[in-house]
Amino acid sequence: MTTVEGIVLKERSVGEQDKFIDILTGENGVLEVSVKGAKKINGKSGSSAQLLAYSRFCIDKRGKYLYLNSAEPIHIFYGLRESLSKISLASYFAEVMRFCIKPEAQNKDIMRLMLNCLYYLEKGERSESFLKAVFELRLMSEIGYMPDIVACRSCGVFEPQELFFCISDGGFYCADCFDGSSTDDYMKIKLPVLSAVRHIVLADFGRLFNFRVSDGTQQRLSALAESYLLTHMERNFGTLDFYKSII
Q1: Of these four, 10, 26, 188, 200, which has the most CB atoms within 10 Å of its CB?
Q2: In the predicted structure, residue 41 carries a pLDDT above the cut 50
Q3: Do the Cβ atoms of 174 and 155 come closer than 8 Å?
Q4: Backbone angles phi, psi at 108, to 5 degrees
Q5: Is-above-0.70 flag for pTM?
Q6: CA–CA distance from 219 to each of 8, 110, 222 (Å)?
């Protein structure tokens, strides 16, 4: 038997009483665990094994499969269920995590990112668009897709007032160096957006959420972050489509 702390990313019913849950952990990536009797009124897992619950799980391994022995809640994030947009955005975070993070992947920072985003989302201490952009860009950086945002790839200028960011490879050219030959793959942005991207991908976790941007900058930052994630994941997410349909 092993004990892990994790967040439930998905529930899938099996038969009349059982279910599978996918758990994001810091030490073992995403684990698929069978929960016997989950739908019984007095089921032992209870709220600890529901979607987006952050819990301590005791897990038995039998052959190739994992079975939940018991679970103790740490934080259930009930507040997310009070808002359709909040629970929808949190579900998008969970779906992306399930797709990106493989079993046995060890990255406690990814777990921390998910927990922090859910916490701020539940409390309403940051806007949804802000949290979505931070989640998308920081996650991409943590899994090996950090954009190359140091300087213009041609002249090396560090703080161009206007630039063209390449969605497919993460680099940029200042407005003076950009040749304009393939604008479909580039997004035109200004220095405040670049500064926000730099903060998100480079700041330590203690400062990650400690910045503010104007509404205009947030709009461009949101568009860039979403395009960057979807392009590199090479797929769409149904939860994102639903979230966008309600806001």
Answers
A1: 200
A2: no
A3: yes
A4: -70, -25
A5: yes
A6: 30, 25, 5
Q: Are 221 and 80 in contact (CB under 8 A)?
A: no
The residue assigned the tokens 């966008």 is 244
Give the closest residue to 51 by CA, choosing from 93, 15, 112: 93
What pLDDT band is residue 106 in, cutting at 50, 70 and 90? confident
Tokens representing residue 10 in the block:
């998905």
DSSP 8-state secondary structure symbol assigned to residue 102:
P
Interval 175-192 mean pLDDT? 89
CA distance 90 to 240: 10
Contact call for residues 169 and 148 (beta carbons, < 8 A): yes
First to last CA, the chain: 44
Residues 6+ apart with CB under 8 A from 247: 85, 128
